[in-house]
Design a protein that fits this description.
The protein has about 230 residues and is mostly helical. It has one domain. Helices cover about 60% and strands about 0% of the residues. It is built from eight helices and no strands. The longest helix has 22 residues. It is elongated. The model has no long low-confidence stretch (mean pLDDT about 95).
Length: about 230
């Protein structure tokens, strides 16, 4: 099987992403970075007029996970029918499994409440791990990086060059701003989601889907989507 090059090349950058995610997680688990998270969250709450609130809500719609799954699955089915090969569905399945398993497990382990969680006797510190929630890491960002990358693969016959990079980069940038501004996630949730999503996408980006070994039959030919 042929492996594809990613940028930056080499596994060193993957190690940097994992190390960054691990460092943030350990710092939060030991009570660090919480002051920064709460300060940023409080500032956003105090500087959110209605016009900016609704603008951010519209921008945040770019992070709807269900849309990613259905849109990519529909495009994959179109290419399966058009090119008579099952390969277009493979990156969709990989994206779903990688994001669902990793994000779900990490959210359950850290059990962190969202910034909008009211401070009560039962939840005196919602910014801490174990406060009861699914805020860490940000699924908005991790999903967006992986799924918009998958969408770029499936749209590759039509979306090329700078437009392909725009499709992959613009939505995560918008989501980085809106999820924190709307207090859907703590700042550290979002940074961790970016690191996790980038690592998962690099794993997917290395796979040459047309060269994955499959049983020989008439529906295992190349899809030509990159």
């Amino acid at each position: 099987m042929v492996w594809r090059r990613v940028w930056p090349a080499g596994w060193w950058f993957d190690a940097v992403l994992v190390a960054g995610f691990t460092t943030i997680t350990l710092l939060l688990a030991n009570g660090h970075l919480l002051g920064i998270d709460t300060a940023v969250s409080d500032w956003c709450a105090d500087h959110r007029p209605d016009a900016l609130y609704w603008l951010a809500r519209v921008g945040n719609l770019l992070g709807q996970g269900g849309f990613f799954t259905y849109a990519c699955a529909a495009l994959a089915l179109f290419w399966i029918w058009r090119r008579h090969t099952v390969r277009p569905i493979m990156p969709v399945i990989a994206a779903f499994l990688l994001t669902f398993v990793s994000i779900t497990i990490l959210k359950d382990i850290t059990d962190r409440a969202a910034p909008r969680t009211p401070v009560t006797a039962a939840v005196p510190h919602p910014e801490q791990f174990g406060s009861g929630g699914v805020s860490y890491p940000s699924g908005h960002l991790a999903n967006a990086i992986v799924w918009y990358g998958t969408l770029a693969i499936l749209l590759s016959p039509w979306v090329v060059g700078r437009w392909r990079w725009t499709l992959r980069i613009a939505p995560p940038v918008i989501l980085t701003i809106t999820t924190v501004y709307l207090q859907f996630h703590w700042l550290s949730d979002t940074v961790a989601g970016i690191l996790l999503g980038s690592f998962l996408w690099r794993l997917m980006g290395r796979v040459s889907w047309d060269d994955v070994p499959l049983p020989k039959n008439t529906w295992t030919g190349p899809a030509g989507l990159y």
